[in-house]
Amino acid sequence: MKKIIFTVIILAAVLFCNELNAQKAKFGHVDYAGIISVMPETDSAQVVVKQLKADLEAEAGIMQQEFQTKYDEFTQKQATYSPAVAKVKQKELEDMYQRLQAFAEAAQAQMQAKQEELLAPVQEKVLNAIKEVAKGENYTYVFDVSTVAYGWDTTDLTDKVKAKLGVK
User: Fold this and answer.
1) What is the pLDDT of residues 86-137, one digit of tens each?
2) Which of 27, 71, 144, 162 would be 32's cystine partner, CB 3.0–4.6 Å?
3) What's the CA gap between 90 and 75, in Å, rounded?
4) CATH classification code of 2-165
5) Helix (H, G, I), strand (E, B) or coil at 108
């Protein structure tokens, strides 16, 4: 009886292993950033972000010039100011400098938010194309080349995804 149970267990294990081999996982990889960079929508987004950057830099330039003018005036006339006036003028300069720094941080955040907003539909489009290619060719996993240090037995699907998107 023990021999029959042992045989059944071995047979079940062999069948289970054969089933696993029949459903072997397929791995692929893509150059996600490379695909994003050749999308026409990416160029349009970069033009908008570049214009926003130019506008914000112009505004920062005006603020910087105003600060520099007041700073130069302060350094030239500092000796003629009473201690109370000098303290008020110095406080004004410190406040202007802090506003300038706050503006620079806000401008950076605004540019980043705009870029993310404009690229979100492009990223979604690329991800959908990757999913379609992967499903169509029965891939279990598709990795981005920037996140994989080593890949064994994977297929580059980048060109197939680009073809699906109609880009080169």
Assistant:
1) 999 999 999 999 999 999 999 999 999 999 999 999 999 999 999 999 999 9
2) 144
3) 10
4) 3.30.910.20
5) helix
